[in-house]
Each structure stands twice: as C-alpha cells, then as structure tokens.
Write a structure and sequence with these properties.
The complex is a heterodimer of chains A (194) and B (140). Chain A has 7 helices and no strands. The longest helix of chain A is centred in the N-terminal third of the chain and has 26 residues. Chain A has 194 residues and is an all-alpha fold. Chain B has 5 helices and no strands. The longest helix of chain B is centred in the C-terminal third of the chain and has 32 residues. Chain B has 140 residues and is mainly α. The chains are: A mainly alpha (194), B mainly alpha (140). At the A-B interface, helix 3, helix 6 and helix 7 of A face helix 2, helix 3, helix 4 and helix 5 of B.
Chain lengths: 194, 140
C-alpha cells in the first residue's frame, strides 16, 4: 500500500511539473528558453511513462524528445530568429480552441476502459498469445522486442522506411548537406542550385 | 563555445561512453528495454555532441556525407534483405523462423538481431543527415 501511495505521489508531482512547464512555455517569448524547457518536458513525460511500466516508450521519449529534438530545435533557431514575434490573433482565441479540444479529448476518454483494466479489449485479443507463447516461439525475454521486430515486423519495416523518407525529405527541402565554409570540391556540392 | 576547455574535455570523455551505451542498447534490446530505434538515436546523439563541441567540420571528416547517404539506405536494405532471404528459404516475407530450418526460435532470434541492426543503422544516419541538413545550412 505504501508503495502505491508513493507511486501516486510521484505521478502527481510529475503531472504538476508538466502542467507548470506547459504554462511557462506557452507564455515565453524567448524561443531558445522554450526549446530547452521542451527538453525538460520530454524528460518528465519519460518519467511518467516509466511510472506506467512502459519502459521502451520512455526510453524513446527521453532519447528523441529530450535529446535529438532539442538539438534540431536549436539548429532551426540558428537559421531563423530566437525570439517569437507578436501573435497575429488574440491569445483568447487560442486558449479557447485548446480548452475546447482538451475537454473533447477528456470526454472521449470517458468511454475507454479504466487504466490497467485486465478485461480491456486490447488485453483480450492477441496480447495473451504474445505473453504466453512468445518465449517458446521467439525465445527472447523482452516481449516488446518480439512484438515489434517479429510479430509486427512488417509494421516496423514500414516505420523504418518512414524514417528513411523523412531524411530524404529533409535533405531535399533543406538543400542537401550545404556547408557553411563552402568547400568547392565537396562531392555533394553540385545540384544545390540556390 | 568551441574554445571552452571544460566542454571539450568533458565532451571528449563522454562521447565514447555514449557510443558504447548505444551499442549496448542495440544488442541488449532482446533482453531489456531498448532496440534499434533507441540505439540509433543515442548513437546519433553521441555523434552530434561531438559536432556541437568540436565543430561540424570535425564530424564531417569522421562521418563524411557519402557515408551518411549510403548508411541511410543500407539499414533499410538490411531489413528488407532479411525479409527476402526468409522468402528464398521458403517462408513468407520477414518470416525469420525460416532462417534456421532446424530451430525456428533460433532463426527468429537471428532475424530480430539483424532487422534491429538495420533499424539502428538507418536511424543513426537519418538523425545525422537531418542534423547535417540543419546545421550545415548557412543563414540566408
């Protein structure tokens, strides 16, 4: 019981910190500070996912959200400006839209099964098969890896292709690997028109 | 930033451990949390940390853009290749059990190791490619 109470206390404080951070980020004009706080927000989200026993997801959140995204945000800021311009519309409109969307999403969760409910539909379809038979069929202890790489290997193949496409898109849109020092004999120096 | 001696020393000491940790996450993904995607991101984060401290050109020398371009495709090709090989062995696309005809579970294990490696390679180089695309672009 004490352990449960401590878990609830940690979850509550993580939630509270995330809310405070979200409000602070929304009010900040300095995009540099906002990018840094986004990283911390991601780290808190990773802590939250760890509390929910979704360690693989938390791992990804920490590595991508707190690590790579922050660097890319800073890279983007280096290309533009690090201060937000005055908003075009009144802030009340934005607040109203966000509140309405949030309330709709919260309303949507009312129909969902309770958190951790063993009789939820998602736990009654293929999940028992994965949990019971995967060690005999695949022979590795991490069921998440078994599901992602083998049972749903085709999905993961698609996701890898998506990641590849993202890089191709970034290279094409941002004009290839243009160098700041402008070395003329670089092999990818051609085809960059502008 | 590049003249800051503390950053240089700490960064130089940290980068090898970050890369090693990425390899651990890659190959320990069967037993603990992690896998190709996380490992790729961590490996790329180590490389990007190097670029942030020692400059973009230093990383370009060690990981030239041609290596990045080839690496992006190589990982996905490895993944698809495992699928095609399992077809040639008489199974369906990505049916890893066929990779070892005597022991299906061993074939599964081998297949997962290879496709996760493919994911890891692609994700590493994709992250570096996006970083190159952002950081290498001069301000207009």
């Amino acid at each position: 019981m004490g352990e449960q109470a401590m878990g609830a206390a940690i979850e509550a404080s993580l939630f509270l910190l995330m809310i405070v951070l979200a409000v602070v980020i929304a009010r900040l004009r300095s995009l540099f500070a906002a990018a840094m706080l986004f990283g911390i927000f991601s780290l808190l989200a990773a802590g939250m996912q760890t509390m929910m026993d979704a360690v693989d997801v938390a791992f990804t959140e920490a590595a991508v959200g707190a690590g790579i995204s922050t660097v890319l945000f800073l890279g983007a800021l280096g290309l533009t400006t690090s201060n937000e311009t005055r908003p075009l519309h009144h802030r009340v409109i934005g607040l109203a839209v966000v509140t309405a969307t949030g309330l709709l999403l919260a309303y949507g969760t009312l129909d969902m099964p309770a958190y951790g409910d063993p009789n939820a539909p998602i736990h009654r379809h293929v999940a028992p098969h994965y949990l019971v038979d995967s060690s005999a069929e695949i022979g590795i202890p991490n069921v998440v890896t078994s599901v992602l790489a083998s049972y749903r290997g085709y999905d993961t193949y698609g996701e890898t292709t998506v990641v590849l496409t993202a890089a191709v898109g970034a290279i094409l849109l941002l004009g290839g690997f243009v160098t700041r020092s402008g070395d003329p004999d670089r092999r990818d120096g051609d085809g960059e028109g502008a | 930033m590049r003249e800051t001696i503390i950053l240089r020393i700490v960064g130089k000491a940290l980068v090898p451990f970050i890369l090693l940790f990425a390899l651990y996450v890659q190959f320990h993904g069967d037993y603990g949390p992690g896998g190709g995607f996380q490992a790729g991101v961590i490996f790329a984060a180590g490389l990007i940390l190097h670029a942030l401290i020692f400059g973009l050109d230093s990383l370009r020398e060690k990981v030239p853009p041609i290596v990045v371009e080839v690496g992006i495709a190589l990982g996905a090709l490895l993944y698809a290749g495992v699928g095609v090989v399992s077809m040639l062995m008489g199974g369906e696309f990505l049916h890893y059990g066929m990779l070892d005809t005597h022991d299906m579970a061993h074939g599964q294990h081998l297949g997962i190791l290879l496709v996760e490696l493919g994911v890891g390679i692609t994700v590493t180089f994709v992250m570096v490619a996006i970083f190159y695309a952002f950081a290498g672009r001069s301000r207009q």
